[in-house]
Amino acid sequence: MTTSPVLLIEDTSSLRLVYETILKSAGHEVRSAADAAQGLALFKTLKPGVVLLDLVLPDRDGIDLMAELLVLRPATRIIVITANASINKAVAAMRAGAQDFLVKPFDEQRFLDAVGNALSASGAPSPEEKPSVAPGDFIGTSPAMTAIYGKIRSVAGSMASIFITGESGTGKELCAQAIHDLSNRATAPFVPLNCGAIPAELLESEVFGHVKGSFTGAIADKPGAAASADGGTLFLDEICELDLGLQTKLLRFLQTSTIQPVGASRPRKVNVRIVCATNRDPAEQVRKGLFREDLYYRLHVIPIHMPPLRDRGRDVVAIAGAALARFAREEGRSFDGVAPDVAELFAAHPWPGNVRQLLNVMRHVVVLHDGPLVTRAMLPDDLFQSTASRAPAGTAPASLALGDLVGRPLAEIERRVIEATLARHGGSVPKAARVLDLSPSTLYRKIEAWKAGG
Asked: 144-305 belongs to which CATH class?
């Protein structure tokens, strides 16, 4: 099955025998070592594409050995093996260059999947592949984004969980989609789930599914996002919005790769890769007791932080140009580009709502005007009112003076307050929800109702 041998470095003889048997039964060529010295000697002789490395060895620290192996052959894919009590060490190994990690005890299929993924990823990149070229739907060549593109390509072949952070509107879902598209799961489903947009009482069903009649309103079986993503990638956006009870069930799912739909009598196995995202500081959420520490370490294996648009230099002009061309085609307009003074304004603006805010501005221009160039007069009146965009949270903008609200229907007042708060926070529903003391799911439902009603 493989032309490159798999090197197994494991000091426990019984486990070494089990792992060898599984790998050989699947058609892999395996060579084994019982300690770091023997493993290093075999590594230099065999030049394996994949190494299975136990992090606890009798003669040397596993991470220290891994570092030496990667210096000798940087393209080697290393899968680290650790006990549950040492998961922090496995996370450190991932950040130091490991391809994947396995926590004992693990099932046979998870073991073979990890090895298969590593072997697929161990081939050299094709000559025509240019690391600076933006993957997926990303646009921009700034140093900040070039580093992100490299990281996406590096982690795409791994089974490890990815934790994407960044301000609202920075492209966290684009990052997750690009990782999926470059992985060997690209032909399987990519299933996004916004944890903040679903009422807490329905979230378990949305993630794990339910069977008909399991609760009021369950009129048919529903597979849930985890089952729908079987073989592919499950993207959990706004992961920090999960309540603690569901966090416990998600942790159990990560540990066992099994799900049990609401009302089901027995669990079932699924094979998914988890990518999650948040615009909060997850470590701070752990310190506040709002996010389980053990779940954090399970998910926060490979962190990717998306830079805000203000840190991306001239990328803003390239994104604006691409959006302008797309929106002009959709609306039947004849724009050719943006005027030079507008390009300079865009590059200097802080963009509190990031790429999402920029896209809204370009859509506004195209809907209300025609080309050939975007001029400053076409831009929304409030775009460069920096004092409004940086107003302290909790202070109402001038447009919502009390006199403007008196005598208006309560529903209209509510909508105006919510829309102004969203605008101040760059369209971020979680941020606006915190200021308004509402749940994000409540805000999402109100926004969808307004869209439906016009």
From this structure: alpha beta
